[in-house]
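PROTOCOL LOG
Step 1. Enter all chains and additional molecules of the complex.
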Amino acid sequence: MSNDKIWLSSPHMGGNELKYIHSAFEENWIAPLGPNVSGFEQDIQSYLSSEDVKVEVAALSSGTAALHLALILLGVKRGDEVLCQTMTFAASANPIVYQGATPIFIDSEEKTLNLCPAQLEKAIKDRIQKGKKPKAIIAVHLYGMPYQVEKINKISMEYDIPVIEDSAEALGSTYKGRKCGTFSPFSILSFNGNKIITTSGGGALVTHSNEDKKEAIFLATQARDEAPHYQHSHIGYNYRLSNISAGIGRGQMEVIDERVSQRRDMFHFYVNLFKDFDGIEVKAEPSKDYFSNHWLTVIWVDEDITGFSREALRLHLEGNNIESRPLWKPMHMQPVFKDADFYGTGIAEELFKNGLCLPSGSNLNDIEKARIKTAILNFIEK
Ligand SMILES: *Cc1c(COP(=O)(O)O)cnc(C)c1O
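Step 2. Run joint prediction.
Step 3. Record the structure below.
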């Protein structure tokens, strides 16, 4: 049996990506604009929009760039404070610092692993009492699991602090039937190589108005004023998506529903694998309101029951050339954010200690699944 590396999440082409890339070459649209860019934006707009909400999409060079532009469009400036989920990838928090603002980190709750509404509210009250009302809240649908949308939005409304919805990992997830990426005036997507669909590298800002989309594209293309010469009244950025990359994205959007169902199949594969095993919980949707794309399947290892740590399991898998990974190391535990304020009770820390992401790619075949199954059973049953 082949012992090739099994990856956590690898690119999975649909088949038509090259067709769109060829048309870019044929028409010489080798630029950060062109028919693939607008076509890709249209594809995502149609996919996310519903009777409840119509969204506009600006295709960008990365999800990080999209977060940066969202902060700028919300007026976040030097000295401001921005609340951010601590349990996330650093790209959720870094753009706060690009703006010269200060991140304040908030713990997770155990149901969705995402922003804890109680700690969020506590933080807001405390910051207001200290004399500075936070400018924005960055909430993340981590690993594809929707956060507690209604509770978070209620707090956002009550204190009048906008939410930026980090949906980088959640394309195809829904909450009460509505797609993640549509619950806030600004949401972001990522199409990096390991995400549920990829453009090799890329991202998007999702807005609720055409003005916001236009403003984002203006800033993403060096903020040129209307003039025959180059004239600038704002600082701009070079954040637009290439027409070649967007071609990959168009091919990928043709298979997004298939990719969601394949990722969810991987989740059910693990639910089945661990169903009779005490001390390992496969993190599932807390109720029928939640529908996760299960970008990555997460397990929680209770060492007191299993007798082994998640790290022992991870190393065993690595020995079998199977990649698995601890959950994101919380931002308040990162050396670079060691001085940042944090509101929480240690849940994110526990998740980091005991949680493990298992191979979840939509392209894992039966032979690879059998290898994963054998490797895990050999370890947990011994
Ligand atoms: C991938 C990711 C990002 C950043 O997206 P890039 O396209 O890699 O810049 C932001 N937030 C989360 C939660 C992510 O997983």
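Step 4. Note key features.
The longest strand covers residues 56-60.
The chain has two domains: 17-255, 257-381.
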